[in-house]
Please model this.
Amino acid sequence: MSTIRIGAGAGFQGDRLAPALDLAERGGLDYLVFECLGERTIALAQQARLNDPAGGYDPLLERRMRAVLPACARNGTRIVTNMGAANPRGAARETARIARELGLTGLKIAAVTGDDVLDRIGSFILDETGEPTSMLGDRLVSANAYVGIDGLVSALAAGADVVICGRASDPTLFLAPLVHEFGWARDDWARLGRGVLVGHLLECAAQITGGYFADPGVKDVPDLATVGHPLADVDADGNATISKLTGTGGCITRATCIEQLLYEIHDPAQYLQPDVVADFSGVDFTEVAPDRIAVCGASGSPATGHLKVSVGYYDGWIGEGQISYAGANCVARGELALDLVRARLAPLGAELHEQRGELIGVNSVWHGARGSTTAPEVRMRYAARCVSAEAARRVQEEVEGLYLAGPAGGGGATGGVREVLAIASTLIPASAVDAGVELLEVHREIA
Amino acid sequence: MRLHDIAHARTGDKGDISNISVIAYDPVHWPLIRDLVTPDRVAAHFGSFSAKDVTRYELPQLHALNFVINGALTGGVTRSLALDAHGKCLASVLLDLEIPVAAKTSE
Model:
């Protein structure tokens, strides 16, 4: 096989479905990859599974699979996804049910497990606290390792048409098909590094085709409303060209590629991955045709032998409220509102771990902003992280109370209370994680 | 002149760490960006963290810098009280950085 064509179906849990369906139907893809797990998504999924043992996988799984499975089956496109979240087996069973309904007899669906390390994480030290994970006690919700390609490659080798995992490093979802197809050695660091680059560039879907990019008058993007998702043609050495389907909106340029290359990267020479330490420091991009970019220059070195683990834990409650002021002297009235809420919450003392007040339109995003004293309107916002739901509710109530007992002309109060599911990190030896693969085959329904 | 006139930028996040890429539109401006957009200036511009929290990486073939800022996300995406907990807006804030016109004319 000279080249493999991989497309990005989703770059986050809530990503748009139409571009994925377009790729499935007319992309001529070998693989369609859905990356749907954010840093915290899996902890939320674990929470969902505690409430419903059959749940805990991506809530959009059914919609996505129902939409793309017929086209993928017709075109011989295999699907790789982390939509299994906290329950890959449940997700595989659900996908098999949908495939059966769609009449896709013979379809093979694999669940890849092994990322859940909750039962062996207790003694490992959290980066954030310097204390063992076990100190979290009953606040501990989940612990998932960012696993590498092993389970995914095994599933593909077993003939799976759809491979569903939970937590894996995002580029791994793209690297695994390349290793499977081209038979790259597990110590072929340069090719593994190039494969990681392909995955890194594609894993955020529209972020390389003009999404998260447009700046009117300076960085204009054509037809952003119909932005397409990217695909890569990758050769046996891991060299790739990135493009999108004709007729889709957006653009792929050197500029979009450079922005995505550095997205969520720290040291470009050392991008730590489960199977390789990728080196992006020498990467370059060439525009070979409009919306078609050749990628070169990635390399790699041996993996560290450790996997990052995201640990989900309960960390109190956040209460929040907002209210608007507009017109003459609105900034001063907004500031008075902040002072009032701060004073009225003061008796709660240590029940508030941390609090924050700001004026949206003046300094809500950037606290260092030199505050303007005039604005057409401001929205006062007050938030606090609290020990209890009751204390958090007080924050919301004190903002709402500004209607009658606050500055003149406050309107449109909103607020809410939510439990904090926080994420901390630790490392475990890769040898402490074993991948498991379970294969389901869709049989004809017996009437 | 503002940095926005000669460069584009993107923010990424991991835990409590923000990274901001700064990329020259025109290679002509790369030396200026490399010389003037220092960790000290970046820290002073934001005013909410110190230069020792900022690490800068250079990618000359791409005319790009990558700034990695520790502790930039008020405790991290999952427990921050900030509206923009990911710090997605920070790159655009950095593009407001003033570039001295004298520096431009002396290049």
User: Anything to note?
Assistant: Chain B has one domain: 3-105. Chain B has four helices and four strands.
